[in-house]
Amino acid sequence: MKKLLKGLLVATVALGIVACGEQSGTATVPAMAGAEPAKIYNWKLITSWPKNLPGLGMAPENFAKLVEEMSNGRMKIKVYGGGELVPPLQVFDSVANGTAQIGHSAAYYWKGKVPAAQVFTAIPFGMNVQEMNAWLYHGGGLELWQELYEPFGLVPMPGGSTGNQMAGWFKKEMNSVADFEGLKMRIPGLAGEVIKRLGGIPITMSGGELFTALQTGAIDATEWVGPSNDLAFGLYKAAEYYYYSPWHEPGAVLEFTFNKQALESLPKDLQAIMRVATRAINQDMLDEYTAANNQALEQLVDKHKVKLRKFSPEIMAALKAATHAVMAEEVAKDPAMKKAYNSYSKFFEQVKKYHDISEKEYYLTR
Ligand code: CA
Fold first, then answer.
1. Cα 50 to ligand 1 centroid, rounded to whole Å
2. Ligand 1 center–CA 285 separation, angstroms
3. Is the pLDDT of residue 27 over 50?
4. Class for domain 2-161+251-291, per CATH?
């Protein structure tokens, strides 16, 4: 938030200068007749999502539109769906090397390169979206994230949230922990490591590949997002069991990545507009999911006869125990992961105390 406020301040000051210029009647004001026209920037934004996918895919489209409006047309951003300019899971590298100036993706896709990045998407059994945003904007999380990406010449910013995600689609019923043995499941990030501990085979692939992989049996199960996005992909046609309780992505946060050099070469007001627009999109995506998921779930169950199932307490306990073991191992092998996780955990412990008597109590009583 400090950064955002600083950005707003810079933008206000910049506007102030323009206003003063107008009053004094100097010819240095870009907006005045006869002055140099304002420089137009044409930027590229690459994503990991199919073009215009509801929620995830619309966030970068909305961002581009908002930035163009806020900048009065000085910043034009062309959005590319996954695979249009670069493969969906090469967003990080392609923004770092300047192929595009902005990316929209999820930090946990980069776990092979930057393991600690996963902390900034989701930790199984960790913070929900409200808590994640609080940690990122007011608890030092965003500063740590930016420090982590600094060596790659990237500036990350939160880029939306799906809220709590469904446990996923399974071709068979999951009655016991033993059912995870040999299960080929598309599940990225730390949750994939958890599935591995239960004997499963975690696979990371982009969203666009999911349906075919599930339908052909290349995978036995997949998590994706939640009712709204899962319905759009038609996953119900490839697997009949749809499981909760949510555990693996309790408040998944998406990311915008900016090429640092490109971002810093912009006038200060455009930099501020970028920051403010990411914050607007970060909230808007969550609102869109909250509005859309209910109707989509109804449609899945009533119209498409999806079998909604809940993991047993035994399965949930095994997933939780495996999560603790995975986190202990991850923290022990990577100092950056340790630093990020320590900050995350400390914040989580604190926020939980109040949420246990506020949010949780309210959910149980309303
Ligand atoms: Ca997911």
1. 15
2. 15
3. no
4. alpha beta
